[in-house]
Protein backbone atom coordinates (compact mmCIF):
# COMPACT_ATOMS: atom_id res chain seq x y z
CA UNK A 1 0.00 0.00 0.00
CA UNK A 2 1.46 3.43 -0.91
CA UNK A 3 2.51 5.61 1.97
CA UNK A 4 0.02 8.38 2.77
CA UNK A 5 1.36 11.78 1.71
CA UNK A 6 -1.65 13.80 2.77
CA UNK A 7 -4.59 13.70 5.16
CA UNK A 8 -8.01 13.65 3.49
CA UNK A 9 -10.38 16.00 5.30
CA UNK A 10 -14.06 15.04 5.03
CA UNK A 11 -16.86 17.33 6.15
CA UNK A 12 -20.13 15.98 7.52
CA UNK A 13 -21.68 16.52 4.08
CA UNK A 14 -18.87 14.56 2.42
CA UNK A 15 -19.38 11.67 4.82
CA UNK A 16 -23.13 11.59 4.18
CA UNK A 17 -22.43 11.10 0.48
CA UNK A 18 -20.40 7.91 0.95
CA UNK A 19 -22.45 4.94 2.17
CA UNK A 20 -26.16 4.19 2.51
CA UNK A 21 -28.05 3.03 5.57
CA UNK A 22 -28.42 -0.44 4.03
CA UNK A 23 -24.68 -0.68 3.43
CA UNK A 24 -23.99 0.46 6.98
CA UNK A 25 -26.14 -2.34 8.41
CA UNK A 26 -24.22 -4.90 6.32
CA UNK A 27 -20.90 -3.44 7.48
CA UNK A 28 -22.05 -3.39 11.11
CA UNK A 29 -22.85 -7.09 10.87
CA UNK A 30 -19.39 -7.69 9.44
CA UNK A 31 -17.81 -5.82 12.37
CA UNK A 32 -19.93 -7.66 14.93
CA UNK A 33 -18.96 -11.06 13.48
CA UNK A 34 -15.29 -10.06 13.54
CA UNK A 35 -15.63 -8.95 17.16
CA UNK A 36 -17.30 -12.24 18.07
CA UNK A 37 -14.44 -14.12 16.37
CA UNK A 38 -11.82 -12.23 18.38
CA UNK A 39 -10.50 -10.33 15.35
CA UNK A 40 -11.14 -6.82 16.69
CA UNK A 41 -9.06 -4.83 19.16
CA UNK A 42 -10.11 -1.56 20.72
CA UNK A 43 -10.82 0.41 23.85
CA UNK A 44 -12.38 3.61 25.12
CA UNK A 45 -12.59 5.63 28.28
CA UNK A 46 -14.72 8.43 29.66
CA UNK A 47 -13.02 11.65 30.69
CA UNK A 48 -15.30 13.87 32.76
CA UNK A 49 -14.96 17.56 31.91
CA UNK A 50 -16.58 20.30 34.05
CA UNK A 51 -19.78 19.54 35.97
CA UNK A 52 -21.85 18.14 33.10
CA UNK A 53 -19.80 17.12 30.12
CA UNK A 54 -17.54 14.29 29.17
CA UNK A 55 -15.18 13.43 26.32
CA UNK A 56 -14.90 9.82 25.18
CA UNK A 57 -11.82 8.80 23.16
CA UNK A 58 -12.56 5.55 21.33
CA UNK A 59 -10.34 3.33 19.14
CA UNK A 60 -10.59 0.11 17.16
CA UNK A 61 -9.11 -2.09 14.44
CA UNK A 62 -10.20 -5.23 12.56
CA UNK A 63 -7.44 -7.71 11.68
CA UNK A 64 -6.63 -7.45 7.97
CA UNK A 65 -8.04 -3.93 7.53
CA UNK A 66 -5.94 -1.12 6.04
CA UNK A 67 -6.93 1.47 8.63
CA UNK A 68 -7.49 1.72 12.35
CA UNK A 69 -9.65 4.48 13.83
CA UNK A 70 -9.50 6.84 16.75
CA UNK A 71 -12.75 8.66 17.47
CA UNK A 72 -13.51 11.47 19.87
CA UNK A 73 -17.07 11.87 21.14
CA UNK A 74 -18.06 14.71 23.46
CA UNK A 75 -21.31 15.13 25.38
CA UNK A 76 -22.09 18.54 26.90
CA UNK A 77 -25.84 18.75 27.69
CA UNK A 78 -25.71 22.46 28.53
CA UNK A 79 -24.64 23.49 25.03
CA UNK A 80 -28.09 24.07 23.46
CA UNK A 81 -29.33 26.47 26.13
CA UNK A 82 -26.01 28.13 26.98
CA UNK A 83 -24.38 28.45 23.57
CA UNK A 84 -26.93 27.40 20.92
CA UNK A 85 -24.63 24.53 19.98
CA UNK A 86 -25.28 20.76 19.76
CA UNK A 87 -25.09 18.53 22.81
CA UNK A 88 -22.74 16.08 21.10
CA UNK A 89 -19.79 16.37 18.76
CA UNK A 90 -17.64 13.68 17.10
CA UNK A 91 -14.49 13.52 14.99
CA UNK A 92 -12.54 10.57 13.58
CA UNK A 93 -8.92 10.06 12.56
CA UNK A 94 -8.16 7.04 10.39
CA UNK A 95 -4.63 5.69 10.79
CA UNK A 96 -2.67 3.71 8.21
CA UNK A 97 -2.03 0.26 9.67
CA UNK A 98 1.50 -0.07 8.25
CA UNK A 99 2.97 3.29 9.24
CA UNK A 100 0.72 4.69 11.96
CA UNK A 101 0.37 7.87 9.90
CA UNK A 102 -3.00 9.64 9.72
CA UNK A 103 -4.83 9.12 6.43
CA UNK A 104 -8.15 10.85 7.06
CA UNK A 105 -9.81 13.31 9.41
CA UNK A 106 -13.59 13.40 9.22
CA UNK A 107 -16.51 15.07 10.92
CA UNK A 108 -18.29 12.16 12.55
CA UNK A 109 -21.60 13.35 13.99
CA UNK A 110 -23.69 11.80 11.22
CA UNK A 111 -21.66 8.61 10.91
CA UNK A 112 -21.88 8.17 14.69
CA UNK A 113 -25.65 8.11 14.37
CA UNK A 114 -25.44 5.85 11.32
CA UNK A 115 -23.14 3.37 13.06
CA UNK A 116 -25.27 3.34 16.21
CA UNK A 117 -28.45 2.70 14.23
CA UNK A 118 -26.80 0.03 12.08
CA UNK A 119 -25.33 -1.67 15.15
CA UNK A 120 -28.64 -1.59 17.03
CA UNK A 121 -30.50 -3.09 14.09
CA UNK A 122 -27.88 -5.80 13.53
CA UNK A 123 -28.39 -6.72 17.20
CA UNK A 124 -32.17 -6.45 16.99
CA UNK A 125 -32.18 -8.81 14.00
CA UNK A 126 -30.82 -11.53 16.30
CA UNK A 127 -32.58 -10.74 19.58
CA UNK A 128 -36.06 -9.57 18.51
CA UNK A 129 -38.79 -11.84 17.18
CA UNK A 130 -38.32 -12.08 13.38
CA UNK A 131 -41.99 -11.33 12.77
CA UNK A 132 -41.81 -8.03 14.70
CA UNK A 133 -43.64 -5.27 12.84
CA UNK A 134 -44.52 -2.46 15.29
CA UNK A 135 -41.84 -0.19 16.76
CA UNK A 136 -41.83 2.73 19.19
CA UNK A 137 -38.80 5.03 19.13
CA UNK A 138 -38.14 7.54 21.90
CA UNK A 139 -36.10 10.39 20.44
CA UNK A 140 -36.88 12.03 17.11
CA UNK A 141 -33.46 13.46 16.32
CA UNK A 142 -30.95 12.12 13.84
CA UNK A 143 -30.45 8.95 15.87
CA UNK A 144 -34.15 8.18 16.01
CA UNK A 145 -34.60 8.76 12.28
CA UNK A 146 -31.63 6.57 11.38
CA UNK A 147 -32.82 3.79 13.67
CA UNK A 148 -36.10 3.48 11.80
CA UNK A 149 -34.38 3.75 8.41
CA UNK A 150 -32.01 0.96 9.43
CA UNK A 151 -34.74 -1.18 11.00
CA UNK A 152 -36.66 -1.50 7.73
CA UNK A 153 -33.57 -3.13 6.21
CA UNK A 154 -34.11 -6.19 8.43
CA UNK A 155 -37.80 -6.17 9.45
CA UNK A 156 -41.14 -5.78 7.70
CA UNK A 157 -42.30 -2.82 9.79
CA UNK A 158 -45.96 -1.90 9.36
CA UNK A 159 -46.31 0.78 12.05
CA UNK A 160 -43.86 3.11 13.76
CA UNK A 161 -44.35 5.63 16.56
CA UNK A 162 -42.05 8.52 17.51
CA UNK A 163 -42.06 10.19 20.90
CA UNK A 164 -40.00 13.25 21.74
CA UNK A 165 -39.98 15.82 24.50
CA UNK A 166 -40.31 18.36 21.67
CA UNK A 167 -43.63 17.44 20.00
CA UNK A 168 -42.80 19.38 16.82
CA UNK A 169 -39.66 17.28 16.34
CA UNK A 170 -41.66 14.05 16.57
CA UNK A 171 -44.29 15.37 14.17
CA UNK A 172 -41.75 16.42 11.55
CA UNK A 173 -39.81 13.17 11.88
CA UNK A 174 -42.99 11.11 11.49
CA UNK A 175 -44.19 13.09 8.49
CA UNK A 176 -40.84 12.90 6.72
CA UNK A 177 -40.32 9.19 7.28
CA UNK A 178 -43.86 8.16 6.43
CA UNK A 179 -43.44 9.85 3.05
CA UNK A 180 -40.08 8.14 2.55
CA UNK A 181 -40.86 4.67 3.86
CA UNK A 182 -44.47 4.26 2.78
CA UNK A 183 -46.09 2.90 5.95
CA UNK A 184 -47.79 4.66 8.89
CA UNK A 185 -45.40 6.62 11.08
CA UNK A 186 -47.07 8.61 13.86
CA UNK A 187 -45.97 11.18 16.39
CA UNK A 188 -47.25 10.43 19.89
CA UNK A 189 -47.18 12.71 22.91
CA UNK A 190 -45.07 11.78 25.92
CA UNK A 191 -48.24 11.53 28.02
CA UNK A 192 -49.71 8.94 25.63
CA UNK A 193 -46.61 6.76 25.35
CA UNK A 194 -48.01 3.84 27.33
CA UNK A 195 -50.66 3.06 24.72
CA UNK A 196 -48.14 2.66 21.88
CA UNK A 197 -45.46 0.88 23.92
CA UNK A 198 -48.08 -1.75 24.77
CA UNK A 199 -48.60 -2.38 21.03
CA UNK A 200 -44.92 -2.54 20.15
CA UNK A 201 -42.75 -5.53 19.34
CA UNK A 202 -39.59 -3.40 19.41
CA UNK A 203 -38.81 -0.34 21.56
CA UNK A 204 -35.75 1.89 21.09
CA UNK A 205 -34.81 4.66 23.54
CA UNK A 206 -32.29 7.03 21.95
CA UNK A 207 -32.67 10.22 23.97
CA UNK A 208 -30.45 12.72 25.73
CA UNK A 209 -32.93 13.25 28.55
CA UNK A 210 -33.20 11.63 31.98
CA UNK A 211 -36.58 10.23 32.96
CA UNK A 212 -38.47 6.95 33.19
CA UNK A 213 -39.89 6.55 29.71
CA UNK A 214 -40.86 2.87 29.82
CA UNK A 215 -42.32 0.62 32.55
CA UNK A 216 -42.14 -3.18 32.69
CA UNK A 217 -45.88 -3.82 32.79
CA UNK A 218 -46.26 -1.94 29.50
CA UNK A 219 -44.15 -4.51 27.63
CA UNK A 220 -46.06 -7.36 26.04
CA UNK A 221 -44.55 -10.87 25.89
CA UNK A 222 -41.76 -11.09 23.33
CA UNK A 223 -40.85 -7.39 23.32
CA UNK A 224 -37.27 -6.42 22.55
CA UNK A 225 -36.11 -3.13 24.03
CA UNK A 226 -32.79 -1.45 23.24
CA UNK A 227 -31.94 1.12 25.90
CA UNK A 228 -29.27 3.34 24.34
CA UNK A 229 -29.16 6.79 25.94
CA UNK A 230 -26.56 8.07 28.40
CA UNK A 231 -29.00 8.97 31.19
CA UNK A 232 -31.98 7.23 32.76
CA UNK A 233 -34.58 6.07 30.25
CA UNK A 234 -36.42 3.12 31.83
CA UNK A 235 -37.96 2.19 35.15
CA UNK A 236 -35.79 -0.18 37.19
CA UNK A 237 -38.37 -2.96 36.87
CA UNK A 238 -37.79 -3.07 33.11
CA UNK A 239 -34.34 -4.41 33.91
CA UNK A 240 -35.10 -6.40 37.05
CA UNK A 241 -38.09 -8.25 35.58
CA UNK A 242 -36.80 -8.88 32.05
CA UNK A 243 -36.30 -12.47 30.96
CA UNK A 244 -32.84 -11.59 29.69
CA UNK A 245 -30.63 -8.52 30.13
CA UNK A 246 -27.80 -8.31 27.61
CA UNK A 247 -24.97 -5.75 27.64
CA UNK A 248 -22.58 -4.92 24.85
CA UNK A 249 -19.78 -4.77 27.48
CA UNK A 250 -20.14 -4.97 31.26
CA UNK A 251 -16.90 -3.00 31.65
CA UNK A 252 -18.42 0.12 30.09
CA UNK A 253 -22.12 -0.17 30.89
CA UNK A 254 -21.92 -1.00 34.61
CA UNK A 255 -20.26 2.25 35.77
CA UNK A 256 -22.08 4.60 33.35
CA UNK A 257 -25.76 3.66 32.95
CA UNK A 258 -27.75 5.28 35.79
CA UNK A 259 -30.28 2.48 36.20
CA UNK A 260 -27.50 -0.10 36.50
CA UNK A 261 -25.43 2.07 38.84
CA UNK A 262 -28.47 2.49 41.12
CA UNK A 263 -29.37 -1.19 41.10
CA UNK A 264 -25.80 -2.24 41.86
CA UNK A 265 -25.69 0.17 44.81
CA UNK A 266 -28.99 -1.25 46.08
CA UNK A 267 -27.62 -4.80 45.84
CA UNK A 268 -30.27 -5.76 43.27
CA UNK A 269 -27.99 -6.27 40.25
CA UNK A 270 -24.59 -7.90 39.76
CA UNK A 271 -22.42 -9.15 36.91
CA UNK A 272 -24.26 -12.47 37.22
CA UNK A 273 -27.56 -10.67 36.50
CA UNK A 274 -26.43 -10.12 32.91
CA UNK A 275 -27.41 -13.02 30.70
CA UNK A 276 -24.51 -12.40 28.32
CA UNK A 277 -22.36 -9.83 26.59
CA UNK A 278 -23.40 -9.34 22.99
CA UNK A 279 -20.13 -10.49 21.31
CA UNK A 280 -20.42 -13.81 23.17
CA UNK A 281 -23.85 -14.39 21.64
CA UNK A 282 -22.46 -13.63 18.18
CA UNK A 283 -19.61 -16.07 18.78
CA UNK A 284 -22.02 -18.82 19.86
CA UNK A 285 -20.71 -18.83 23.41
CA UNK A 286 -24.08 -17.75 24.84
CA UNK A 287 -27.70 -18.01 23.82
CA UNK A 288 -29.79 -15.16 22.44
CA UNK A 289 -33.56 -15.37 22.14
CA UNK A 290 -34.81 -18.82 23.07
CA UNK A 291 -38.58 -18.31 23.02
CA UNK A 292 -41.13 -16.03 21.39
CA UNK A 293 -42.37 -14.75 24.75
CA UNK A 294 -39.06 -13.61 26.23
CA UNK A 295 -38.78 -9.93 27.06
CA UNK A 296 -35.17 -9.02 26.26
CA UNK A 297 -33.48 -5.79 27.32
CA UNK A 298 -30.31 -4.77 25.50
CA UNK A 299 -28.16 -2.04 27.07
CA UNK A 300 -25.31 -0.62 25.03
CA UNK A 301 -22.79 2.19 25.04
CA UNK A 302 -21.02 1.11 21.85
CA UNK A 303 -18.10 -1.15 21.03
CA UNK A 304 -15.61 -1.00 18.20
CA UNK A 305 -16.15 -3.71 15.60
CA UNK A 306 -18.89 -1.82 13.77
CA UNK A 307 -16.89 1.41 13.60
CA UNK A 308 -13.80 -0.54 12.52
CA UNK A 309 -15.79 -1.92 9.57
CA UNK A 310 -17.73 1.23 8.61
CA UNK A 311 -15.18 4.05 8.92
CA UNK A 312 -12.48 2.74 6.53
CA UNK A 313 -15.19 2.12 3.93
CA UNK A 314 -16.38 5.72 4.28
CA UNK A 315 -12.82 6.83 3.50
CA UNK A 316 -12.46 4.51 0.51
CA UNK A 317 -15.80 5.61 -0.92
CA UNK A 318 -14.92 9.27 -0.44
CA UNK A 319 -11.63 8.83 -2.29
CA UNK A 320 -13.34 6.96 -5.13
CA UNK A 321 -15.90 9.76 -5.47
CA UNK A 322 -13.34 12.56 -5.26
CA UNK A 323 -14.85 13.93 -2.06
CA UNK A 324 -13.02 15.94 0.57
CA UNK A 325 -9.93 18.08 0.65
CA UNK A 326 -6.34 16.86 0.82
CA UNK A 327 -4.26 18.41 3.57
CA UNK A 328 -0.46 18.05 3.43
CA UNK A 329 1.38 16.63 6.42
From TrEMBL:
SUPFAM superfamilies: NAD(P)-binding Rossmann-fold domains (SSF51735). InterPro entries: NAD(P)-bd_dom_sf (IPR036291), ODC_Mu_crystall (IPR003462), ODC_N (IPR023401). It comes from Candidatus Desulfolinea nitratireducens. Gene3D superfamilies: NAD(P)-binding Rossmann-like Domain (3.40.50.720), ornithine cyclodeaminase, domain 1 (3.30.1780.10). One of its GO terms (cellular component) is cytoplasm. This is Ornithine cyclodeaminase family protein.
Amino acid sequence: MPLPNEILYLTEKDVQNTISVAEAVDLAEKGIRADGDGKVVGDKFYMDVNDDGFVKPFSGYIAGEEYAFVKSFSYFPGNPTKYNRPTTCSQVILIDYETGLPACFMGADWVTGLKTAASTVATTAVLARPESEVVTIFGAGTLGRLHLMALVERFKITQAYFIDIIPEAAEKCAKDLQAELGFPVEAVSLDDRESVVRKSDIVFTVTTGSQELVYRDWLKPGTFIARLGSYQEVNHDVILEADKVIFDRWKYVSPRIPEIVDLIKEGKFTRESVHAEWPDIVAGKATGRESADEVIVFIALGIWGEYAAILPEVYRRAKAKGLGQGLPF
